[in-house]
Amino acid sequence: MASSAAATRRAFSLLGLLLLGAVSCKSQDVAGVEAGAADLSHRRRVLQNPDLPSQRASNPSWMSGGSGGSSSSGGSSGGSSGQQQQQQQQQQQQPASYASIPVGDVHIYHGGAYGDGWVDGSYGVRPFTDYSPAGRTGGVARCNILPYGAATSFYDKSAGDFTGRRALELFVYRGSSDTPMPDITISLAGPSTACAATMHFSSLLPAADAAAAGWVKFWVPLDSAFGGGAAGGGAFQGCPAADGSYLSSGSVVKVDLRNDNSAYDALVCVDDVRLAA
């Protein structure tokens, strides 16, 4: 009986030791799991740190790899984006280009009003005062009586209006078609000298669209008439001057309508005078 009781006590002791070991192991396992969870939580916080480039929402797709993209596709996108940035930088470094501004006509005189920068530079004339001569389309025409050597003159105070222009256009009042026109000289001049070449009314043919009601339109190509260029040439560049120098287009500032005929005083009425581009 004593031997049986001793065996029973040893069995219970072993069972107790086993139970204690199981509880100890379970506690260790729980502690290990909790410790592991703490480590993983710390890992997640590191991965979600916005200081890491891969976690910034503002990064381009090639840096973060895109949504669901592989590393190889991310590298391809990075190369494409890098090329675009390089192209943009090259475009920014290139000098800016500007569309050229078209050259327009310059109005010298119309209906009693002078164009911007233009004034009356006439000399030796007797103003026509018998009545107020009507302009071609309204207003007042510019009428002067020109003794020998006198000129109705238009002066450009600002200078430079001849640059880029091709022709001088003006309307001259003749009256009836059988009335002879005075042979007036057209001259261009700078501040101190004039173009050597001149044109005369008699050498010009009225333009095809000559106005009715007594007005005649003249079209004078500047480059061929004064600059020595070919007929139908381009914009006026300048002219050889009477003193042997050369007047550039920017130095020409006057249009003279001069009476070089000593046989008579000429009555000349003009309107719609302009430089055509």
UniProtKB/TrEMBL annotation:
Segments of skewed composition (Low complexity): 82-94
Swiss-Prot/TrEMBL keywords: Signal
Name of protein: Uncharacterized protein
UniProt superkingdom: Eukaryota
Biased composition (Gly residues): 65-81
Bias (Polar residues) ranges: 51-62
Region (Disordered): 44-97
UniProt organism field: Chlamydomonas schloesseri
Signal peptide: 1-27
